[in-house]
Predict the structure.
Amino acid sequence: MFKQQTKADKTILALNAIILTLIVLAILGPLIYVVMASFTDPSTLLNSGLTLNPSKWTIQGYLRVFKDGSILTGFKNSLFYSTAFSIISVSITLLAAYPLSRKDFVGRKVIMTIFIITMFFGGGLIPTYLLVKNLNMLDTVWAILLPGAVNVWNIILARAYFQGIPNELREAAVVDGTSEMQYFFRILLPLSKPIIAVLVLYQFVGQWNSYFDAMIYLKSDNLQPLQIVLRSILVQMQPRPGMMQDAQNTAQLQQIAEMVKYSSIVISSLPLILIYPFFQKYFEKGVMVGSIKG
Amino acid sequence: MKENYQLYLFVLPALVLIIIFKYIPMYGAIIAFKDFNPLQGIMNSPWIGFENFKKFMNTPDFTNLLGNTLKLSAFGLLFGFPVPIILALMLNRIRNVALKKNIQLVLYAPNFISVVVVVGIVFIVLSPVGPINHIFSLFGGKTIDFMTEPGYFRSIYIISDIWQFAGWASVVYLAALANVSQDLIDAAKIDGANILKQIIHIDLPAIKPIMVIQFILAAGNIMSIGFEKAYLLQTSMNLPTSEILPTYVYKIGLQMGDYGYSTAIGLFNSVINVILLITVNQIVKRLNEGEGL
């Protein structure tokens, strides 16, 4: 420190801390409310809001969600779609990004232009839907896994990362008689863990959280991902029949529907929220790499 | 150059998928200019020129839809764009590393919740029997049914968007701020610059290039924003403000099956999108001494 903090600086720093605290509270508020509400007896919640009285707490909502099983099916489907999608998408992205990062790759500019145009202009919803239909991919997992697999922005990120790796490394490998294939798999990829982690995280979370493709392309109940099940519970307010057994009247039905909403939010969001702090160190590094050079 | 064939093989999968799933639909978009009949196919359906576009521009919904789309995007950009920058500047001044990490952990968390769940939370929090109305009633206010009032739709959309994404969006600015050298800050301190002056003369110039790129990208997306969320937040009552071009395209096309007409509306949307992007890029270039995309 060269100098004591001035009075003005102290005020600014204090104000900064207070405002940030308020922002943190504003973000946590709704989340905490939903978690607490999921354990609160619905009639109490309706009449007096959240309660600190343990005799009014209940795990009924959770029991009903598990009784129905559609959330679990959705969970399994989402896990499959997200895993398969990340593998396909990230492999294709890395493979394409490497040649495009090479200044001596003939056709680099043309291919890049072909890719970049699609970032700003597209055929639109209906022509894409008709194509998927004509390819006989409606109501199959391919409709979820293939059309969005190439993400041009991710190719640009990976390309920027590869460009940051010294070319001398490749030249040395070539002198030693290494082929492109060997260089890519044995030398380049092991050096690219941060960017691979970030791309996998992006694609996995993106697929896990998406509902639109499933909404238009999938019809069968047993193929539906978690978000579609959640949409019917949270937004369309139609809990699955299995959750509503033994409701005796409309008022009770409504209360159960409320409870089911809170618990499904908690159950569905918990895994990602729990995993993500462990990823934090990776994605900050990776995002930085991409954003600054991209 | 001999071994380059391996490199072409590397690009091939991406190229094939892009051509199939991006370029074939671009060709398919010509059904906007045809009286499209699925039985006849894209090739054989009769041309009708700009009929679909004329039909759209003459519907009573036209001005409203265009206005809703532009307003939602413009206000979203106006309020949403500065927030991550301010957040990053504020976070950057937290010296306690552990505290900073924890705040970031909270700020990023909503980004990992799905849009469906966020909209679910919005419905819960704003419901007539929800916590916000509960607080209002404690102070003697009237119960408001936020989700059915068209007047609230844009605020709900934009505020919930900021709630969900602003923290995560601040990452790129934080990364840029991390590169500011401490020597520069120390020198400014010796010259008597307080924190506000340091922010204006050191921090902001440091993140300016990223701000420009982020702004152009955001402006380029102005017409394609948030179909997924707008659609979920729609109720039959708030349609006067919540119906935007992308949701309309979905309804006309996939729910009502009017493929050609719907494609025309989507194309109209894309063309405005491209025009906006080019315009903003030009303006930014001029203001920014020739630096744009």
